[in-house]
Design goal:
9 helices, alpha/beta, 25% strand, elongated, 11 strands, 2 domains
């Protein structure tokens, strides 16, 4: 995938990025004129600006551009004076911010075995994924992907306030006691979520709905809760469950 194909993919996934281009190179320098790199909030995604200190400084500068208001920026550095390199050349860079389009958003509460299988499959689609968990060690098990946000929270339900309208919500926490507050807060905040589901059995659904009624939620809202989560294709392996969930999400997305 070349630079522009990658930029197009990032836009589809709703990922903001900065494209760095070497616009001038004078004297002894490590990078080549015209070389490009793509930087997201997580750092360097692809490309080569010559490596070493100058590339590191350019990537750090790109992250500040990403968080700023200006759509582009230019800098020129003397590599010895401004970067601390022994070579005495000069390099100029153009930083162009690329804004992602509004993507299909999926929020997953819980980073356990099913989510570990689900996220890599879901991340191949044009979507933006937020994964919430209270355990940093489980979040650390995920590979870094530009369209996946890994978010550590004190309590699962704390993540609901970070969601935007139209987000597909999946509660796949370690148990019923942590699924309940996620569903309660999500249904209080979003009156018409396009998808809200929780992993478990039909009997778990009955218990959850009874408790959510006790929390003051009405039946019209509770009817939106999907449980069991995933299409009934059989199998309890996390990978099979993940495929069944992705298929179900795609089917619901088609109805929007």
């Amino acid at each position: 995938m070349d630079t522009w194909e990658q930029i197009a993919a990032l836009r589809r996934e709703g990922v903001d990025a900065v494209v760095i281009t070497i616009t001038a190179a004078r004297g002894s320098v490590p990078g080549q004129l015209g070389a490009k790199a793509i930087v997201t909030a997580g750092g360097l995604l692809s490309g080569n600006l010559g490596g070493g200190k100058v590339e590191k400084q350019a990537v750090e500068y790109a992250v500040t551009v990403l968080g700023g208001r200006e759509p582009c920026a230019t800098v020129s550095w003397n590599l010895q004076q401004d970067v601390g390199m022994t070579c005495g050349g000069e390099m100029s860079f153009l930083f162009e911010k690329i804004a992602g389009t509004d993507p299909w958003r999926v929020a997953i509460f819980g980073a356990g075995h099913v989510s570990q299988a689900l996220v890599p499959v879901l991340a191949t689609l044009s979507c933006r994924i937020d994964v919430f968990d209270t355990r940093s060690d489980w979040l650390a098990k995920f590979a870094q992907r530009p369209n996946v946000n890994l978010l550590l929270v004190d309590a699962f339900e704390d993540g609901v306030s970070r969601l935007s309208d139209g987000t597909f919500i999946l509660s796949i926490t370690s148990g019923h006691s942590s699924d309940r507050p996620v569903l309660r807060e999500a249904l209080r905040r979003f009156q018409d979520p396009p998808f809200i589901g929780v992993i478990g059995s039909a009997s778990k659904r009955a218990v959850l709905l009874r408790e959510l009624r006790e929390d003051g939620l009405d039946n019209d809202l509770l009817e939106k809760v999907i449980c069991p989560l995933g299409l009934p294709i059989g199998g309890n392996d996390p990978a099979e469950i993940a495929i069944s969930i992705v298929a179900q999400l795609l089917a619901f997305r088609m109805l929007l």
